[in-house]
Design a protein that fits this description.
The protein is of the alpha/beta class. The chain has one domain: Alpha/Beta hydrolase fold, catalytic domain (Rossmann fold, 3-Layer(aba) Sandwich), CATH 3.40.50. It contains 10 helices and 14 strands. The strands form 4 sheets. Strands 1-2-4-3-7-8-13-14 form an 8-stranded mixed sheet. Strands 5-6 form a two-stranded antiparallel sheet. The protein is globular and about 70 Å long. About 35% of the residues are buried. This is Alpha/beta hydrolase family protein. InterPro entries: AB_hydrolase_fold, Carboxylesterase_BioH. It comes from Maribacter spongiicola.
Length: about 375
């Protein structure tokens, strides 16, 4: 019995020494710090919105029981039409945060991770020590509480969006496309779509985003698609937006009211610019702006509506870039295939080369001295 105890104790000592030696070896092994994200603060909050109130007086006895089929709303309120924000601030963070705003039918998931499971812009830029704010605009995603009703329709439209997002035609991918061809990746992508829970209200979205910058202070706005045009308008409402990175803006380009370009027709629609006063427009010349477009965008009219609408958008973006720069602004328009980066869809932040896309943006931030 004594010998057994001695053996167990000796074995424990040897195990302890071995574990300590192993831990020492691990501690002495160099760690790639770029793979570690150290967060000093994170959280969620709502911003913007308003409160709807019903007439009458709330009676906690008569109206207090929840009964969906016979529920009185007298004297009660509804908080809604706000944006929902998730933020993370890394340790030793840079001064200016990045505020990421999604596109049409999307949510903050656009930036969180790729459909095939790789890191998205959220983590990529946290590793570069940028504070990151992800938002769901009013009446979308986590900000779904709308003050106005809307009937939701369950339409079978996956293939339509597959084309509009320039992944391919029908169910066939374009050659050399950067999007993952793993069927599960496409499945995950389609499941990211989320509907508006109320009527789309651009002014409501712009107000919420301007209030967000009013709350967090100076920052850099990163937009995608539908939020691109709204981003220009948000910058007109607040001087807290110090730069804009716009991925494939598709609408709501603003021009001086005496210099509005002709509408651009495309298969299925017409792209029109919006006019604002020259004084307002001049605000856009005070901040650096960069615009990125991906691949599979034709230079001439084509019959494929999924491609042709982006021909119109890119054409309008070129007119807008020239107009802002002619007024003394600083807009850079980058068509990725023209700088040797090919195969990107409407979602370059989700494509297989999203790290390269992020590096292009990061280099622009460095060029504009926005990395402090």
């Amino acid at each position: 019995m004594i010998k057994l105890k001695y053996t167990l104790v000796l074995g424990s000592i040897l195990l302890f020494i071995g574990c300590n030696e192993q831990n020492k070896q691990i501690a002495d092994t160099p760690v790639e710090t770029n793979d570690i994200i150290s967060i000093q603060k994170q959280g969620t909050f709502a911003v913007g919105g308003s409160v709807k109130k019903s007439h009458g007086t709330f009676d906690p006895i008569a109206h207090g029981a929840f009964n969906p089929s016979n529920q009185s709303t007298e004297g009660q309120t509804l908080h809604g039409d706000h944006a929902s924000v998730f933020y993370q601030i890394p340790t030793e963070s840079r001064k200016l945060p990045l505020v990421f705003w999604h596109g049409y039918g999307q949510s903050m998931r656009t930036w969180q991770s790729t459909p095939d499971g790789r890191e998205g812009f959220q983590n990529i830029f946290l590793k570069k020590r940028y504070p990151v704010y992800l938002l769901d605009q009013p009446r979308r995603g986590l900000a779904g509480q709308s003050l106005e009703p809307k009937t939701l329709e369950a339409k079978t439209e996956d293939q339509l969006w597959f084309g509009i997002f320039r992944m391919g035609e029908g169910k066939r991918f374009y050659p050399n496309v950067q999007f993952s061809k793993d069927p599960e990746a496409l499945n995950q992508f389609f499941r990211r779509s989320t509907p508006d829970t109320g009527p789309l209200n651009i002014n409501l979205n712009i107000e919420a985003v301007s209030q967000l910058f009013g709350k967090i202070g100076d920052g850099i706005l990163v937009t995608h698609s539908h939020s691109g045009g709204q981003g220009w308008s948000a910058a007109l409402k607040t001087d807290r937006i110090k730069a804009i990175v716009a991925y494939e803006p598709g609408s709501n380009f603003v021009f001086p009211e005496d210099n509005i370009p002709e509408p651009i027709s495309y298969v299925g629609g017409t792209l029109r610019a919006k006019g604002i006063s020259l004084e307002e427009f001049q605000k856009l010349t005070k901040i650096p702006i960069v615009i990125y477009y991906g691949d599979y965008i034709p230079e001439i009219e084509v019959k494929n509506p999924g491609q042709d609408q982006w021909r119109a958008a890119l054409s309008m973006a070129r007119k807008w870039t020239k107009t802002v720069n002619d007024a003394g602004g600083d807009v850079t328009l980058v068509v990725l295939p023209e700088i040797g980066i090919k195969g990107n869809t409407h979602f370059p932040m989700s494509d297989l080369n999203n790290q390269e896309i992020a590096d292009v943006m990061y280099n622009w931030l460095e060029e504009k001295k926005l990395k402090k």
